[in-house]
């Protein structure tokens, strides 16, 4: 900033000047000169620090992201803050940071070394992405970032027992493993269909890398979600031979609107199906034995069930023979007492035009003959040392769980399914369970897996040979399995906790996670004891009818409790809506299903899909779109024969023939909808 010159202050003096005695009158001048010199030095020093701070401030900006020692913010093109992330596992030492091109990196926190970087990527003109990585260099130190969610409405992540749209966060939760779980039995856990992806109404999306030992928590007081990577006290494991050094890495992308940014993220990060399931799955209902007969199903009841379907003039994609047709769990032979002649039974069903699928699961109970065979061949998931099979408890007892990372276990399981198909002509299978909560907290597999949910992925792969009519209830990175996925069992109740009101939020969430062939579980719910609204063993009649109407506008329909268990009016309503599903809904859904193979776009869409600038549309959880041009508004409240309906701007024609040509969004208040009706509107 300055230099020393000869003869100047601090320079070399070449002339000798005789000392002179200062008079008292000159001393104030000397003092003033000293003070002036000090002030000049101070000013120069301050200027240097100021210039340095400007350079540092410039260094800590990359495109629309501002980094500080405690976190970062991202702005949109208009300058508004759309994303904020705070660091909760350390404070960056900004003096360790540098910038090269679009890469901003730091090598230290205030108390330790680390690898940290943010890289700016602009994959297309309308999308700006930031790759973020915080890597610890010392084992067993966790990494946690806290995302503020108050700037927008958020969607995605996982299905849950109490499902809302958008996500509704309440209470505080320390970060816990983000892995698949059976939320019917464990209602506070994450659900069986899960992806580490979230999307917001301000056109921001975040995708956690699949390699992260990811734990999720939240705090509704702070309005934050906690994204944590850790190996200690966790079912996640590092790769063999690697130190347990945690790394939290993810990508944040910002777009011009929520629909376009989601389309980009799906195309970039999600698998897509490579085929469309059987056409009949979309056109005709599936008929399951479960809710009606539970485990008391037998040969006579199955044949009677099929006979009644034909007697009441209903179509059928296939019959689903559910639990329990074997003597013990883990066997693949029909119970001779309940099914004395399965070959004749299948021949009769085939001659009557019925295909049959069978319920299947990954467990072999300890009292099954196959248990000892699987132990001897090493086909089960094992305890951590790998020496002994791990015993697991599930809803039908205790036994081993097949290790689907083991090719021998996959081959054995597949051979059992092939045998059932070849002997009886079984069309497909309902693959139940598959969630990681049925694994031990600590376990080992033939092929080591870092992420427990990869077990779910391996299990879903068993459905690929049968994906024309297969059904899965768990999924992780499983979009390309190309079969129908269903949410966990629904209770026969009206509310948001696994009830009728949860269906639309759950289906929308599954759609946003990239699963588009959705089977919304059984009409009327499962009629479980003490979890059913109704005066008898059957679900409430009105609830059943409203559930039926909503299911008619889903990609596939599934009956179990048949409409003839009620009365003739319910049978007529069921005929009306199965016919409407086949004639109006299925053709549109099949058209969209073909597009899914290329785009991954949802078949069932939220209203904001076509109204990205409309704040109200982001909060609608009781209406949905099929494609862009068919909007559905079911009645979901008991005792109601009217409802408020939100119409986005556009030209709409109601199912009653009314036309609405509106340039602004419009509310229809107390719109009449009779018990045998569901409101729907077509884009004209």
From TrEMBL:
SUPFAM superfamilies hit by this protein: (Trans)glycosidases (SSF51445), Glycosyl hydrolase domain (SSF51011)
GO biological process, one term: carbohydrate metabolic process
Keyword RNA-binding: no
Transmembrane segments: 29-52
Ranges for domain Glycosyl hydrolase family 31 C-terminal: 600-682
Glycoside hydrolase family 31 TIM barrel domain span: 293-438, 500-581
Chloroplast keyword on record: no
The entry's keywords: Glycosidase, Hydrolase, Membrane, Transmembrane, Transmembrane helix
Gene Ontology MF, one: hydrolase activity, hydrolyzing O-glycosyl compounds
Family named by the database record: Belongs to the glycosyl hydrolase 31 family.
Listed PANTHER family: GLYCOSIDASE FAMILY 31 (PTHR43053), MYOGENESIS-REGULATING GLYCOSIDASE (PTHR43053:SF4)
Protein name: Myosis regulating glycosidase
């Amino acid at each position: 900033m300055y230099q020393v010159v000869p003869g100047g202050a601090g320079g070399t003096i070449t002339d000798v000047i005789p000392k002179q005695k200062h008079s008292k009158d000159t001393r104030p001048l000397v003092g003033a000169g000293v003070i002036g010199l000090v002030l000049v030095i101070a000013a120069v020093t301050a200027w240097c620090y100021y210039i340095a701070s400007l350079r540092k401030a410039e260094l800590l900006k990359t495109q629309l992201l501002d980094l500080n020692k405690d976190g970062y913010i991202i702005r949109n093109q208009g300058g508004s803050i759309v994303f904020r992330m705070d660091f909760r596992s350390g404070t960056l030492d900004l003096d360790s940071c540098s910038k090269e091109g679009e890469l901003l990196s730091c090598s230290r926190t205030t108390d330790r070394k680390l690898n940290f970087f943010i890289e700016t990527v602009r994959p297309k003109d309308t999308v700006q992405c930031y790759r973020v990585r915080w890597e610890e260099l010392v084992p067993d130190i966790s990494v946690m970032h806290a995302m503020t969610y108050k700037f927008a409405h958020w969607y995605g992540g996982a299905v849950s027992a109490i499902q809302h749209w958008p996500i509704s966060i309440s209470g505080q939760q320390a970060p816990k493993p983000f892995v698949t779980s059976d939320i019917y039995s464990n209602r506070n856990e994450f659900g069986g269909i899960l992806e580490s992806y979230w999307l917001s109404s301000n056109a921001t999306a975040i995708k956690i890398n699949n390699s992260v030992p990811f734990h999720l928590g939240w705090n509704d007081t702070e309005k934050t979600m906690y994204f944590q990577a850790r190996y200690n006290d966790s079912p996640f494991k590092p790769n063999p031979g690697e130190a347990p050094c945690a790394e939290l890495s993810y990508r944040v992308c910002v777009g011009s609107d929520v629909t376009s940014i989601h389309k980009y993220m799906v195309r970039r990060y999600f698998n897509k199906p490579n085929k469309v399931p059987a056409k009949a799955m979309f056109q005709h209902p599936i008929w399951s034995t479960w809710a009606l007969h539970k485990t008391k199903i037998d040969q006579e009841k199955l044949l009677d069930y099929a006979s009644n379907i034909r007697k009441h003039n209903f179509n059928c994609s296939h019959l689903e023979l559910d639990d329990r047709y074997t003597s013990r769990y883990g066997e693949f032979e029909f119970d001779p007492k309940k099914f004395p002649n399965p070959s004749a039974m299948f021949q009769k069903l085939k001659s009557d035009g019925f295909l049959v699928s069978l319920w299947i699961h990954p467990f072999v109970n300890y009292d099954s003959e196959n248990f000892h065979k699987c132990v001897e061949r090493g086909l089960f998931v094992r305890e951590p040392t790998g020496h002994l099979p791990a015993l697991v408890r599930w809803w039908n007892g205790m036994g081993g769980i097949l290790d689907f990372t083991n090719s021998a276990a996959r081959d054995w399981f597949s051979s059992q399914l092939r045998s059932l198909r070849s002997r009886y002509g079984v069309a497909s299978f309902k693959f139940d369970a598959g969630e990681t909560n049925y694994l031990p907290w600590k376990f080992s597999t033939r092929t080591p897996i870092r992420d427990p949910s990869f077990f779910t992925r391996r299990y879903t792969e068993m459905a690929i040979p049968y994906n024309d009519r297969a059904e899965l209830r768990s999924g992780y990175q499983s979009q390309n399995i190309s079969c129908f996925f269903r949410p966990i069992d629904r209770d026969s109740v009206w509310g948001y906790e696994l009830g009728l009101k949860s269906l639309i939020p759950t289906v929308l969430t599954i759609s946003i996670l990239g699963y588009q062939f959705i089977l919304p579980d059984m009409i009327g719910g499962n009629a479980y004891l003490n979890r059913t609204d109704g005066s008898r063993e059957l679900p409430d009649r009105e609830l059943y009818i409203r559930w039926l109407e909503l299911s008619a506008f889903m990609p596939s329909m599934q009956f179990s409790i048949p409409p003839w268990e009620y009365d003739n009016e319910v049978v007529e309503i069921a005929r009306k809506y199965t016919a409407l599903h086949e004639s109006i809904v299925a053709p549109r859904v099949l058209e969209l299903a073909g597009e899914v193979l290329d785009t991954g776009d949802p078949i069932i869409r939220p209203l904001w899909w076509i109204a990205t600038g409309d704040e109200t549309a982001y909060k609608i959880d009781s209406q949905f779109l099929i494609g862009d041009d068919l909007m559905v508004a079911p009645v979901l409240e008991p005792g109601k024969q009217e409802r408020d309906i939100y119409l986005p701007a556009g030209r709409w024609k109601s199912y009653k023939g009314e036309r609405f040509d509106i340039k602004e969004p419009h509310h229809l208040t107390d719109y009449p909808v009779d018990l045998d009706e569901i409101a729907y509107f077509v884009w004209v």
